[in-house]
């Protein structure tokens, strides 16, 4: 059987409500590179053969012009649109609803475009080369209909100096498989500790706690499962104007339905991103340091 090179699916349809504006298009590298450019560069050199972007119609033309100019001849590209009525089978949402249905819905929008094993990332997160190399290795050697994976980051390497962060805290068994993900919405450093707040109560989390940064690896067969879950989600939650169908919902159901295992593959990479506008200078400094160290060239694309 001919092995298919994996695809990278980049979720770029969202607006950054806390950050303000379309942060996926902002420049952070020395030659005007976006955070996405570094993810794409790392993916290509790790063996990914195609990049698929999930975007919105209202900025599709500008987005395509920017990335086609950079990537033409370097990697195959495709674009899919996430709209509120995508894959809803005619379901009529609440009148107050103003945006699509979340990250797992965004993945589902690529169902007709991706026919091979694939990884999913956020557009506005910097993941690091090690994460892409480990994802590519998993997708080339281990992925199957009953074996998925998530790239796990050390909590201490995913914090912002400018406010609290939300993280999916992974529960991992002795075999390194995911048991569940607990969403913690108010995590921050306090002295030498890392804590999260819930109902006015603080709980300490170990610095090496494994957390999800929404870097998942799936087989092509996962689309049918996601679509089935989305139908169930709409019936149960579609009338709620702000309900969202997130990827961890899919992962949790996959485990609970005993469909297979989700391996947690640990990366040593340091995450950084622009959760807040104040994060931007730090991101630029981090990228400059990686360029100075020779991890990336000063200009990614010719």
The CATH architecture classification is Alpha-Beta Complex
Task: Briefly note the structural class of the backbone.
Answer: alpha/beta
The CATH homologous superfamily is termed Spore Coat Polysaccharide Biosynthesis Protein SpsA, Chain A
CATH class wording: Alpha Beta
Mean pLDDT: 90
Q: Count the E strands.
A: 13
Query: How many structural units, i.e. domains?
Result: 1
**Might you state the CATH topology name?**
Spore Coat Polysaccharide Biosynthesis Protein SpsA, Chain A
Distance separating the two termini:
35 Å
Low-confidence blocks of residues: 15-21
Strand content: 25-35%
Radius of gyration: 19 Å
Q: What is the helix tally?
A: 7
